[in-house]
Structure formats: structure tokens, C-alpha cells
Amino acid sequence: MTEEKAKLIMEEISKRFEKINDLKELNDYKVEQLGKKGKITELQAGIRDAVNKKEYGMLVNKVKNHFNELYEEKMKLLEEVELKKKLESEKIDITLPSKKIRRGTKHPMTLTIEKIEDLFVSMGYDVVDGPELETDEYCFERLNLPKDHPARDMQDSFYITEDKLLRTQTSAVQARYMKSKSEPEPIRIIVPGKTYRRDDDATHAPQFGQIEGLVIDKKENNVSLADLKGTLEIFARTMLGDDLDIRFRPSYFPFTEPSYEVDVTCFKCHGKGCNLCKDTGWIEVFAAGMVHPNVLRDNGYDPEVWGGFAFGPGWDRITMFKYGIPDIRLMYQNDVRFLNQFDRKDD
What are the DSSP E strand ranges found in the chain? Predict the structure, then answer.
């Protein structure tokens, strides 16, 4: 190959590069020149038969370098053009209305628990937790429910061993919290948590939530039934409506004396009577009472010096009342259609 022929080849290469307008065409031309059967590749193979191998090799390298330089320039230019086209076609019009972004929602029971905790923390209560796998001692015996006590029949339980069971009430944390004190001291706590009993229907579930409340103070500070009633009125009106009334009905619980079932006026009919309240005008919400002296004594508090009250609403029932949920099982099925209804600001 002569110097003149090399010059003609380079001119031809330059003219071809001027006509290339896209990356695909550029890549095809590279294969045409540098592929296994490419023109420049064939020139390189011809060095074996050249009379002056050194001169021939220098001319072939000159052609190849010329091609590579033009290729890099063209590649850079076409990539910039492609990028501009892409940016132009994909640019966002910020004046268009935005699309609603799907987001997760809090479970209705979570909304209820958070509101209850905020309320009681604002009243000076501490939020306390305890084990769900409980001993018979703390779940029953330290709450004035000795073995073979008939009231245990009301709490059909899931026993793991003869002595250990899934707790039937968060009241067990009462005893644990009192026993954790090296010296008796005032207590003001709520204990939200899961509890377990052998129930399963539209208003009961094998797993349900309970929020135990406990207030203990020296008797000289006069913690009375009036304080309990005032506390529960604030709770009921905050959670279910400002226009509710509250009433106490005498009842029996082993860990309180006196004991009460606590009702609120039906928030649907406002006391007139409807299908929700079974035409009574009232709905049962709480179990409550003054802490039994035996419970105080068994957990390190002298009932002659200390007294207080306890209460235990179920957060499942509060959630059902607050959001008008007809079946407790809906809250445990994780049906997205049900949960999406709570994608809103909670009032």
C-alpha cells in the first residue's frame, strides 16, 4: 500500500463519517471497518505479504488511528444529540396537577392506642409494658384469684405449661410493677397490650387488646371513687364524644372492691335506644373499681396506708365504637379494602 492509497482511504472514511446521523449507523460502520471481515482488518492482515513490512505497517496504523479519532468524535457528538432528545421528550411539566401517591395507613387500632396514650400521658400517667407469656402467679394469684377460685372460669385461658399461660389481662402488669418497687411509692400507669382468651365471635376474638389503668397513692391524699369517675368521663368523652354521660353499675371483680361495670350513653342514638345499644340507651365500655386490699397487700403495699383505683377498657371495643366497625374480626383480617378506609386525618 502506497502513501497515496492510504490518503484516499482516509478521505473516504472522513466522508462516510459526515453522513452518519445515529448511533446504530455509527456502530454498523465500526463493524464494517474493524470487524473480523472489516476493511481495515484486511489491510492489517496484508502485512504478511508486503514487500516493505515496516512502511506498510505504519500506513495501516495511520489509517486505523484516523478512523478511531473520527469515531470517538462522532460518538461523543451523537451521544450529546441523543441526550438532548431524551431530555426534551422526558421533561416534566411542573404546572400539571400531581398524582396522588399511594401510601400506607395506620391500622384503626393503632390510631386508637396512640390517642389513648397521648391522653393519659397528658394527665401524668406513665405507659408501661409487660410480658405476654405470663405465670399463673402474676396473672391470677397476685390479683386475688387463688387456684380453684370460681372467677377463673370467666377467663378461659391458653396454657403453655401448668404454670405458664398467655395472659388473659394486662392487670398482671399491675402486680409486676408494684413488686418492682423496692419501697412502696405512688403509681399512675396505663398498660396497653395484647391479651388472650378462648373466644371467637363478632364481638370477641381469641386475641384482643386491653388498656389497664392503675392509680395508687397514700390514703391521706384521698384517691377516691370520684377521681375514678372523673378520669373515665374524660376518657370516654375524648374518645367517643363530648356529649356522653357515664354510669357505674355494681359488679364483681376479684381484684377490686367495690367493683363496677361502667357504661356510657350510646353515641349513635344519644341514649334514646337503638339496635347498637339494644334499646337500652347505654353501652358497656369499662370494668373498674377500687384496688382490693388483698392485691395491695400481696404486692408490697399496706392497705391501711395505700389505696387507689384500677380500670380496664378494651381498645378493640373502643375502636369499633369510634369508627363504627360492626365485626371485631375485620380488624384482624388485614383486608386492604378495609384498612384503606382509614387513610385520612384522624380527628
Answer: 126-127, 133-135, 158-159, 164-166, 187-196, 207-218, 246-253, 256-265, 282-291, 306-311
Query: Are residue 169 and residue 265 in the same domain, yes or no?
Result: yes
User: pTM, whole model, 2 decimals?
Assistant: 0.65
Determine contact, residues 343/105, Cβ cutoff 8 Å.
Answer: yes
List all residues 6 or more positions away from 293 whose beta carbon is below 8 Å from its beta carbon: 257, 303
Residues 60 and 138 in one domain: no
Measured CA angle at 202 (ends 196, 206), to 5 deg: 15
Q: How many residues does the chain have?
A: 347
Per-residue pLDDT tens digits for 126-155? 999 999 999 989 988 998 888 877 767 666
Is residue 264 left, alpha or beta, with left meaning phi > 0 and alpha meaning psi from -120 to 50? Answer: beta
Number of continuous H segments (helices) and E segments (strands) in the chain: 11, 10
Distance, CA of 70 to CA of 78 (rounded, Å): 12
146 and 231 in a single domain? The answer is yes
Q: Are 310 and 214 in contact (CB under 8 A)?
A: yes
Beta-carbon contacts of residue 126 (< 8 Å; ≥ 6 apart): 188, 189, 190
Question: Residue 20 is part of which domain span?
Answer: 3-90
Q: What is the DSSP string of 194-235?
A: EEE-S--BTTB-SEEEEEEEEEEEEGGG---HHHHHHHHHHH
Residues 6+ apart with CB under 8 A from 317: 203, 285, 328
Q: How many domains does one find in the chain?
A: 2
Residues forming a β-bridge with 284? 263
Confidence of residue 202 (pLDDT cuts 50, 70, 90): low
